[in-house]
Structures are given as C-alpha cells and as structure tokens.
Amino acid sequence: MQASMYDTLEEVRTDIAARLTEAARDRRVPMHTPVVVTADADARVMVLRDFDPARWTLRFHTDARAPKVAAIGADARLTVVAYDQPGKVQLRLHGSGRIEREGAAVDAAWAASTNFARRCYLGEAPGASADQPISGLPEHLEGVEPDDEQIRRARENFAILLVEVEEIDWFSLAHTGHRRALLTPIGGEWIAP
Ligand SMILES: Cc1cc2nc3c(=O)[nH]c(=O)nc-3n(C[C@H](O)[C@H](O)[C@H](O)COP(=O)(O)O)c2cc1C
Which residue intervals define the domain Pyridoxamine 5'-phosphate oxidase Alr4036 family FMN-binding in the entry (predicted)? Predict the structure, then answer.
C-alpha cells in the first residue's frame, strides 16, 4: 500500500501553515482569495494579506464603512473557506474577527500599501446606492494613481480585519481515499471525510 502524503496530524498542521503562508504572499494561488463568512450568513471573497502561524491569525484589509464591519461588530464569529484546486485541499477556518482602525498593525498595513491600493478607500462607502454604474471614485482619479496629498483622506476609511482561528477543518481529496482532520491550536483529531 502506498503511504499517504499525510500520515500524522503534525504533517497536517505543517501543511496548513505552508498553504496559508504561501497564499498570503502569492496572488496567483487560489487560497489568496478565500471566502469570508460572517455570522449574519453573508459571505464575500477577500484577499488574504497575512497569516501568522504562531498565533493562528489571518489579516484582511477592508473599508471601515463596509457592511461586513458592522456585522462583525454585532457578532464576531467568522468562518473562512479556501480551496486549493491543484492541491485538492479545502480549509474551513473557524474563529472570531476583530476590526482595527487605529494602532501599529493598521499603520504598518497602510504604510505597506501603494497609493493605487489605498485609492479603494477614497470613494463612496461600499454598498452606497447609485443611479448608474459607478466605481465610487472621484472622476479625476479613475485609472489614475493618486498622489500622497490626494490619498490622505482615504486613511480614515481603512481598517484591518484580524481573524483569530480557533479550529481548522482540513480536507484532502484523493481517489485513494479522502483524508480529513480537525485541528485546534494545541491539538487535533482525524475524522471521517
Ligand atoms: C477577487 C476579489 C477580491 C476582493 N478583495 C477584497 C478585500 O480584500 N477586502 C474587501 O473588503 N473586499 C474585497 N472584495 C470585495 C468583497 O468581495 C465585497 O464585495 C465587498 O467588500 C463588500 O462586502 P460587504 O458588503 O460584505 O461588506 C474583493 C472582491 C473580489 C472579487
């Protein structure tokens, strides 16, 4: 019998950390854009910006005025779902979310962004209604990278979402037999796929 790639829970833990670390760094991998599910049963694609394997914490960026921010304020429970199609691994991360608008982590994330990326936070609030198709951006900034003076106002709308992961449901698809494990920061168990 051929040995599976995943024979121990430690291998699963290492696999999860490797996938999420790569996903935060490489925009070409599918796990770069997981689905973030809030407790109000809404869900949306977000860009994974960072994974801290020591703290099991994910970082996302968002507009502080977005509806998801209020949803997280009302109920912090979050699920993040990511599927690596070539690797045939699904991750379902369960935890709680925290929005930060001030502080060292927010300042660092803002400092690391380009003015093109920051431009997203300069326009109309996400979800604001419009009588025609709109980008929400001021017309003079469509397709243009704002300068430092023009971007200053955007900072107050910028927030980070930190997800403290409490449990990960790891699922590996294989025609020789799927594998599935539930991991917590300190333990874990195999379960039936
Ligand atoms: C590929 C892709 C990446 C996205 N990345 C983000 C992101 O990093 N942060 C974000 O707030 N919205 C992102 N969005 C937009 C969200 O999916 C969503 O439409 C928007 O944030 C409003 O969500 P809400 O109404 O739940 O707050 C992205 C959308 C796509 C298609």
Answer: 42-98
